[in-house]
Amino acid sequence: MATYTQANERLRALEDIEQEIGAILQNAGTVILELSKEKTNERLLDRQAAAFTASVQHVEAELSAQIRYLTQVATGQPHEGSSYSSRKDCQMALKRVDYARLKLSDVARICEQMLEN
Questions:
Q1: Which of 32, 40, 72, 94 could pair with 79 in a Cys bridge, judged by C-beta atoms 3.0 to 4.6 Å apart?
Q2: 17: phi then psi, degrees, rounded to nearest 5
Q3: Which UniProt keywords apply (predicted)?
């Protein structure tokens, strides 16, 4: 259940990033429109440029965080909300137990054969 909640949070974060990219494009459009005028409003240009820069930095940071998370998931490194590593360890331990059980039964069979002879 926690994994689904975390996945939904990740998707919401990506949707927020998408909306912010839309705002970035809108800021850029406003700046271009203002620059195309004969007499530009420099205060508006400064505000829009500052908003554009801040938004780009925020999007870059958020996308970097998402990429780091996906890198952890893809490489099987432990990360918040994932049970993959624990499940993999458990599966490997069960395989080792099965292998040990097989070898012990082989040893037991050999011992029985030796006792019979």
A1: 72
A2: -65, -45
A3: Activator, Nucleus, Transcription, Transcription regulation
